[in-house]
Structures are given as structure tokens and as C-alpha cells.
Predict the structure.
Amino acid sequence: MTDPLVALRHDLHRHPDLSGDEGQTARRIVGFLKQGAPDHIIGNLGGHGVAAIYDGVQDGPTVMFRAELDALPIQERSSAAHQSGRAGVAHLCGHDGHMAILAGLGHSLSESPLRTGRVVLLFQPAEETGEGARAVLADPRFASLRPDWAFALHNMPGVALGHVAVAAGPAACASVGVRVRLRGREAHAAQPETGLSPAPVVQRLLEWVPQFQGQQVGAQWRLATLCHVHMGQPAFGISPAQAEIWITLRTITDAALGAFEQDLRQLVETQALHHGLDAQISRHDHFNASINNPAAAAIVARACAKLNMPMGDFALPMRASEDFGAFGDVTRTGLFFLGAGLHAPSLHNPDYDFPDALIAPAVQLFRTILQDCQHA
């Protein structure tokens, strides 16, 4: 007989939705959760978000567990029977597995109800763009759900299967996408001096980015990644007037990210002024740093010890970003990483597939974390 949580994961994997368009995924989640009869379900939270609430008999802390609804705009390369049925869209970050784990926790709560406190299972939209967590927090209905604790996991290829990495302090980096648009004046390619080309500023930015490619994450660590460059039109007779450059910036803390972004803005504005160009700078896909509360991290570590789940060899913080960090402004948060296998394809790779073997132990880990929170 097929495990219903594995079947759910495969169904979600076959029907992925992009950030901000997760309506069908949310409906699948609600349909599955209703089999276990949560006390309340709130839909369309911060977009297509779903919150399932399980009330205890007695008053106690509210504990939130969070998973993500959205998939990625990448074409999957897989021969699995449950491969994505949408061209160019796939669950290649493991959010399908995260949702199955949370759904499993919901069924556990239905079969063995809480005695004290309240649990909120949040299926959050738009994690991949960094917009979802803040949208949920901005939804007026979230005020009634505000938790005393919030936990989330992320599967992690390169870490032994089922091993856990957690620590107090930085868990995932802050990041922001900076889009630079430059505008000058076209000229004949034979007389480029009569125009205003953005090429010198583009060249300066292409020289600036590689300065921030350090491999070791430390307090002063900065990473700049060139993601997109476009200049002019595909014509040999025209010296261009326009250019667009996309750069992603990453640091350990939100304050450091702000300083890094300001340095880039100052460079662009100074160079544009020097070369007589108009510069427009906009920010996108902003992720807060995820900073683990020491008590929340300790609860995760104790739960792992109780279940004899080994600690994974993974240096924190994760260089990638996670918008779960936004919840740190309103509650004590704990983000931890669950090994997906030493030789598993990396996240966002076209052949990544969440390991089904992680679902059952992760449900048990979340339930054990909940038990500790009820007595913390």
C-alpha cells in the first residue's frame, strides 16, 4: 500500500505552481488536511497561503510550523513517474517534500490531539521570490495566529541522508537582487564619440562583481553574483544607448546587506554621472537573514537527541536565502536543515527530487519539537 504522504508528495510534484500562482497547490493541501479535520483552516493568507489550526484543550503556547507552496521556473530532467506535468515548472527545491511533512504533522495532530496550546501549520506562498513571508505577516488575519515559536526545515543535498544541522544565530544569508538600468544616447558605430554609451559603466560593474567571490562565510563575508547583462541592440552599426544589469548581493546580516547595497548604488550613481548617463536602480527578491533564536535552536537539538537523529556536517549559515527569516521579527524562530544525501543533486538543479525517505522521520521530529515547546 502506498504511503499517503508519499502519494501526496508525488501528486504535488506532478502539479507544481510558480510563486504567487499557487492556487491549485493550496487546494490540494486543503483537501488533504480536511481528511484530518483541523479546528480551523484559513485560506488565501498573504496570497494563496493556507493556515491550518489545531487547538489544545488547555491554554498554552502557539507553535507554528511552516512549509512553502511554490515551485521553480526550471525545466525538470527526470524519468520518475511523478515528474512535473508542467513544462518549464518543477519542484526542484524540495518544497513538495516540505508540504508533505507538514501535512503529515497535521494528521498526527488529528490522531493524537494536543492537550495544551495551539499549533499553526502554515503553507506559505512565494518563498522563492522573498515576498511570501512578508505578505503573510502583512495580512491582518495573521495577528490572531501570531506564534510564540516558529520552526521550519529545509532539505539539504550534500548532507548525509536524515542528518540534521542546526545552531543558534545565522542560519541563512540575507540577499537582494539589484537591477541597474542605464540610459545614454545612440550613435553611429563609426562615430561612437558623438553618443553616450553605457559600455564604460557596464565594464566597471563587471570588474566590481568578482571582488566579492569569497568562498568562506564569515562576519565580513560579501558575495556579489552577476545574473544578467544586456546592452544595446544586435546591430553592428549602432553604438548603444541602453544597458541593463542584474546583480544579486548576499551577506550574513540584514545590516551588512544594507551597507553592501549602498556601496553598489554609490558606485553606479558616481559612474553614471561621470559618463553622462541616466541610471535607474531597483531592488527585487529581498530576503531577510534567518537568525535562529538560541532557545529555538536548542529545542531542535534536544528533539534530534531524543530521536537519535545524528548531527550533519554542514557549515551554517546556508549561503542561500530563505524568507522564513522575516518571521524572526515577530517570534522566536528555528530553521534547521535535513540531509538529503551526500551525493544528491543540488537544490535548483533540473534533476533534483526530494527523498521520500525523509518524510516520516521529519514528521516525528516536528512532533517532538512541539512536545518540548509545550513545556518550554
About this structure: The mean pLDDT is 96. Residues 89 and 260 are 32 Å apart (CA to CA). The domain at 4-171+289-373 is CATH 3.40.630.10 (Aminopeptidase).
